[in-house]
Amino acid sequence: MGQPACDLLIEQGRISAMGTSLNTPESTERIDGLGQLLLPGLVEAHTHLDKTLWGQDWYVNEVGNQLVDKINNERAYRAQAQHDSASQSLRMAREFLASGTTRIRSHADVDTEIGTKHVAGLLQTRADMAPWQDIQVVAFPQSGLLQRKGTAQLLDESLAMGADVLGGLDPCAIDLDPAQSLNVLFEIAERHNKPLDIHLHEPGDMGAFSLKLILDRTEAHGLQNKVVISHGFCLGDVSDAQCSALLARMAKLGVSLVTSAPPSRIVPPLGACQRAGVLMAGGNDGIRDTWSPYGRPDMLERAMFIGMRYNLRRDDEVEQALHCVTHTGAEVCGFADYGLTPGRRADLVLVPAQTPAHAVVARPVRSLVIANGQIVAREGKLLLE
Predict the structure, then answer these.
(1) Is 295 helix (H, G, I), strand (E, B) or coil?
(2) Closest by Cα among 151, 60, 63, 80 to 109
(3) How does strand 368-371 pair with strand 14-19?
(4) What is the dihedral of CA 354, 358, 360, 365, to 10 degrees?
(5) How many CB atoms lie within 10 A of CB 89?
(6) May I ask the CATH architecture of the domain 42-333?
(7) How confident is the model over 290-334, as pLDDT tens digits?
(8) Where are the domains of the chain?
(9) Are 159 and 194 in contact (CB under 8 A)?
């Protein structure tokens, strides 16, 4: 990525060699990259495949501004529309693949109305896309953990079904009992030996308080390097001293961040995170759902939004945004076997761009997408049936 032109050999789904004038048999299929830029497969570190309305009739959004308004509205819509999380998540995963995304972490709603239906739908999509795409399924209590009795048991069941990660949500603002909410959550994670990915929308001192409780339990349960904070708005909404102290502790415990770089919310400070050694990945969050009409399954576009939100202008700065949806995204989510290195899985994206920064800003149609050594898309069009 951004290195001099070279040849790349793929054998049995893996990058077997890189260099100039590689010696290969005459029967080897050759693809001329035409001097274009080669990127590793893109990484979506935070989305909600189960929620998307992509490909359906336009949803007229008349929802209130509060988080609880959106939660309640979504539950009502699901019941009325008989939303099919399996078919919709598959549709969106295929769109992601066409644009070069080969690794996805997706949250799946779990509550007492739908039970584990959305988890089951995403597990089916994970299996369907497994030859080309790695999908992590997060069992996510969107309506809260304590507010709806029986949710903890449903999360237990979701992890037993095969969900990869345990999700959490605003222990103060939604569950109203942060200590108990987090105690239950961490006990479930420890019981199943699963990592955690916790939505933390809470602002300012409230969010900082919840984050401290999360860090306390991360240490107490020995879950270092297994906890991710999604959003973490509070880190941009407290004093520099508070932020620095929290980031220092996050770095010590290996707690990472994921941001969608929303334009309407205060975001964690990227520079301070980098100086502290806290990794920050990028994700779209929801795409075309009852929460928001915005978004596209294009991680180069999300990288551009990250660059714009953080005022990244120099080429080396814009490349930081690209890292959020490539190498750093893979590291934060724990996706192994990643990158443009001999021996790694051959997940490659060819784009008509001169530099990585150019690719982020121009977001060109992907000329070629190779996933697990197979050509899966050309000129933005998926080749799979």
Answers:
(1) coil
(2) 151
(3) unpaired
(4) -60
(5) 31
(6) Alpha-Beta Barrel (3.20)
(7) 999 999 999 999 999 999 999 999 999 999 999 999 999 999 999
(8) 42-333
(9) yes
